[in-house]
Automatic annotation (TrEMBL):
CDD domains: RutE-like. Its EC number is 1.-.-.-. The keyword Transmembrane does not apply. This is Putative NADH dehydrogenase/NAD(P)H nitroreductase GJ699_11825. HAMAP family: Oxidoreductase_RutE_HadB. Belongs to the nitroreductase family. HadB/RutE subfamily. It comes from Duganella guangzhouensis.
Length: 196
């Protein structure tokens, strides 16, 4: 049976963790990016489908390719972030199901049902993006997820073959605590949870 994480770990993952817009000028090396993926890949997805694909932008040239697709408020902070991850979804994720989900052949469920493909890819790549944020926090990184961008422009620039499409974007780095605003309130238990 699993044990409850201690308060320090819970604080790092949730209670004290913040979404950052500004990061310290410290790079993220390849080993850290690999460790990040090696953690997040274990998060559960439907049929173990794993539809998310991660495009990690770290060079100024890569960031400049993304910049025109970003909203004005997101442009400067994304270009300055040590790493930016475009979390995309593979529209043919079900081709991997025979290996990823050997319990039974689930591939035919998706081959004839584009609506199920879209719903499964969106829902599960969103989950995987959330796992990325938690894995980043577990490794001592900070994250700044954003959705202020032109999805069609991102897809045209980075996924012109149409096999993938962007879900959302996450900036990663070591957050600058001097740039934080007061934390926004959260809904109380009674407002958000119904027990039946």
């Amino acid at each position: 049976m699993s044990t409850i994480l201690n308060d320090a770990a819970l604080d790092q993952l949730f209670r004290n963790a913040r979404s950052f817009s500004n990061f310290l000028p410290q790079t993220i090396d390849d080993d850290t990016i690999k460790a990040l993926y090696d953690l997040l890949k274990w998060g559960p997805t439907a049929f173990n489908a794993q539809p998310a694909r991660y495009l990690v932008l770290r060079t100024p040239e890569a960031k400049q390719r993304l910049a025109p697709a970003l909203s004005e408020k997101n442009r400067a902070k994304t270009v300055a972030a040590p790493a930016t991850v475009i979390i995309a979804q593979d529209k043919r994720f079900f081709d991997e199901l025979p290996q990823q989900f050997p319990a039974y052949d689930a591939k035919p469920l998706f081959e004839a049902n584009p609506a199920l493909v879209d719903a499964t890819a969106t829902r599960n790549s969103s989950l995987q993006g959330a796992y990325l944020i938690l894995a980043a926090r577990a490794l001592g990184l900070d994250a700044g997820p954003l959705s202020g961008f032109d999805a069609a422009a991102v897809n045209q620039e980075f996924f012109p073959d149409g096999e993938h499409n962007v879900n959302f974007i996450v900036n990663l780095g070591y957050g600058d605590p001097t740039s934080l605003f007061a934390r926004g309130p959260r809904l109380g238990f009674e407002q958000a949870v119904t027990l039946l």
